Amino acid sequence: MKLVVLGHGYSAGFLTRLLVPRGWEVVGTTREGKSRVAADGARPLHWPGEEEAVRSELASADAILIGAAPDEAGDPALRDFADAIAASPAPWLGYLSTTGVYGDRDGGWVDESSSLNPTTRRGRARVTAEADWQALALAHDLPLHIFRLAGIYGPGRGPFAKLRAGTARRIVKPGQVFSRIHAEDIAQVLAASIARPDPGAIYNLCDDDPAPPQDVIAHAAELLGVPVPEAEPFDTVGMTPMARSFYADSKRVRNDLIKRDLGVRLRYPDYRSGLAAVLAAEQANRLASRETVGR
Fold it and tell me: If pLDDT is split at 50, 70 and 90, which confidence band does 288 have?
């Protein structure tokens, strides 16, 4: 069995490490050096650069995952490989989107049936990309599955490095809540969907505990045993436009479908369990690195 990932990034690495021990071959594209993709256990290809090799892999894929984000010209995977994907015999096609497509709900709940009202440029680009993938799937009867991911965290992508460095910020915007998802739970949802295809399905990927960002930083500081950063009011704090845009949306995201339709039981149903696991993993990695250097 072979999975081809167009845009083999952080989340795809967790899926690769889950599937390879089960006998899967994973081929992943990268814009940069191949070593990171290879370290995850995938066979790397450059894209751009090795398009014909990518097309050959798509022609023999059992599953295809689109991890590449839209750019200013649209969706790059559609632009470069729409015909190859349309011709592929793969019984599963997945597209990684974002819960940003729902926009701002003033802290209210959304599910997969909620209207799409993006408030950011990134959210609008994802709505367009979703529609373009759905149009391709409709035209060629493709087994498309859309996964709307909440804020992704995991080892190497969490608050601990900034807390250690004293650069973490606890910015408070009244009423602000975010949903999150640990990368290991992303992987198990994707694997469950590959094992149980349902073409046309859309799934929200998030945990059970939407929470204010300042609470997450405070808990991480307590786990690490460092001072909790002082609260900074959103209205007056200095932030880059990109950083400020992450506070444009406040919503709580429901995840009932991944449990009901895919039988998923989240490993990390809240940020407390997830952060504890991230800290343990990062500490184990640091120890292993020191031992390697010591040799």
Answer: confident
